[in-house]
Known about the structure:
The structure is a homodimer.
Chain A: E1 6-11, E2 16-21, E3 27-33, H1 45-53, E4 63-68, E5 83-84, E6 105-109, E7 113-115, E8 120-122, H2 125-135, E9 141-145, E10 150-156, E11 159-166, H3 168-178, H4 192-204, H5 211-222, H6 227-245, H7 247-250, E12 255-259, H8 261-273, E13 279-282, H9 283-302
Parallel strand pairs in A: 1-4, 4-6, 5-7, 9-12, 12-13
Antiparallel strand pairs in A: 1-2, 2-3, 7-8, 9-10, 10-11
Amino acid sequence: MKTIDWIALDWGTSNLRAWGIGAxxxxxxxxxxxxxxxxxxxxxxxxxxxxxxxxxxxxxxxTLVIACGMVGARQGWVEAPYxxxxxxxxxxxxIATPDTEDPRLAVKVLPGIKQLDPPDVMRxxxxxxxxxxxxxxxxxGTLCLPGTHTKWVRIAGGEIVRFKTFMTGELFHLLATQxxxxxxxxxxxxxxxxxxxxxxxxxxEAHRFAERLFAIRxxxxxxxxxxxTAKARLSGTLIGSELAAARDFWTDxxxxxxxxxxxxxxxxxxxxxxxxxxxxxxxxxVTLRGLTSAYHHIAGASA
Amino acid sequence: MKTIDWIALDWGTSNLRAWGIGAxxxxxxxxxxxxxxxxxxxxxxxxxxxxxxxxxxxxxxxTLVIACGMVGARQGWVEAPYxxxxxxxxxxxxIATPDTEDPRLAVKVLPGIKQLDPPDVMRxxxxxxxxxxxxxxxxxGTLCLPGTHTKWVRIAGGEIVRFKTFMTGELFHLLATQxxxxxxxxxxxxxxxxxxxxxxxxxxEAHRFAERLFAIRxxxxxxxxxxxTAKARLSGTLIGSELAAARDFWTDxxxxxxxxxxxxxxxxxxxxxxxxxxxxxxxxxVTLRGLTSAYHHIAGASA
Lengths: 303, 303
C-alpha cells in the first residue's frame, strides 16, 4: 500500500467513512462502516475507528486524523463547540482533540456552526461548504444539502450568512415505515410526474399540508392508488412543504444542490417543478475537499 | 350479576372495550383489553372477545353483540363495506356478520363511511356521530373527533355532509418518541401559554410549518428549552397545521368536540387560541348511545 500521510473522516449519526490520503492529496485507501455516532458510547469511538484504519497507520509516528460531523456533538467522541454564523466555513479555530490510547493517533474534530436567531445548528455541512467554496471561491447564492436533516445555506462574501434545517428526510422515513401510510407504500420508485404535481400543489397551497397525509391512505382505500403514486404523494407533500418554508432561499437564486444519488435527484426534481434550475455537485467530493483544506491548515499551523 | 340482554363493543385498532347492557339500556358490566384489530389475525377475534365476555353470556340463547370500529375493516374480523357520504350516520344497512364458533354469539359489525371526493374514510366515528345526534337531533355544525386520526365532520339535516381526517395524533407520537425531537421532550405536561401561541402562529403562517419542527431541537441546543416548552411547540405546530387545513370546518361554526381527557382538552385549547368556543361531549357516552341505537334497530328488525 502507498504511504498514507493523514486520514479524513466523515463521522455522522449513522455512518463512518474514512479516506487514507497520500502524496498530492490523493486517496490511497477508503473504508466505511455503520458505526455512526448514534450507536456509540464515548469509549466506543476509538475502537470503531481502529476497526477501519488500524492497518493504515505507520508504527513510528502519529498520523493526523481529521474528522467532521456528529462525532463532535456533546454526545459524540469529544464536544467541538459550535462556531457562530455569520462566519466563514473555514475551520480555523475551536478544533477539539479527543483522548486516545493508541500512540499512532492524533485525532482532530472540526467544530459545527450555530445560528442564534432563528436558532439552528449544523455539524459536517460546514466542512462540505468549505470544500465547495475551495472550488468556487466567489460563489454567491444558496446551497441545498439534502439529508436526514436537509440544510439550506445562504452564502455571500465567502461566509455562511444564514441557514435553515428541515427534518423532511427523517419525517419521510418515519411515515413511510411506521405510520398507517406504510400500508400504501412499497419499495417501488416514485411516479415522477405525480411527484412534480404534488410538490407544486403543496408549495402553492401550504395551508393544506396536514390534510394531504391521511388523504394518501384514504385514496388508497376508496379509489385504489399504486405504491408508486402513493410514494410520490408522500415525498412530494413533505418536500413541497419544505420548499414553501424555504422559498426565500431558492427563489431566483444561484442554486447548487450538494448531494448524491436518489435524494439529491429528488430535490432537483422538486425545484424544477417550481421553475428553478439547480446545479448539482457531488457531496463526497466536497466533504473530502473540506477535510483536506482543514488538514493543510492544521498541519501547517503545527509545522 | 344482573341479566345481560346484549353486548356493545368499541373495537378499534389498539383497544377493545365491551359493555354488557341490561334492562332499560343500563350498563351491567364493563371490560376492556389491548386486543385491538391491529394485533389480531382473523382467527384471533373470537378468542379475544370471549376472553373479555365469556362470563357474561347466558347458555340457552344467542346474545346479540354489536360492534363498531376497525373490527369491520378489510384486515379485521369481517369486512363491513363502507356506506357513502353524504348520508345519515344511522346504521341501517351493510351490517356484517362474522363467522363464529361459539353458539352463544350473534355478532354484528357496523359499517364505516367513505367519501369519494376528496377520498376519506371513517370506522367507528359514524357510530359516535349517530349517538351524538340521538341526543341532539337538530344539530347543525361541525363535530371534531380527536384521536390518532382526528376527524372533522360537517353535519346538516341529520346527515354527515362531508368530513376530513388528519393523522396529527400519529405524527405527534412518532416525532415525540422516535425522531431527533425525542431528545428535547419528556413526560412533562406541555406549557399551555406556549402551546396557544404556537397554534396561533402556525395557523397564521402555515407556509412556515416545515421549518418549525427542527427548530424545536435547534433552540434546545442553542438557547436551552424546557421539555414543557418543547412539547408545547411540537403539539402546537402539528395541531396548528391541522387547524389551518380544517379552517372551513371550524370558523364561526356550531362546534362540538367529541372526546375525552387530555387530547380533547388540547384541541379545545387550540381552538380557543384561534378565538373559537367549542363545546365538549363525552366520547364514551356517544359511542354507547350509537351502539344502543343500532341494537334497537337490529333487534327490532329481527323481532
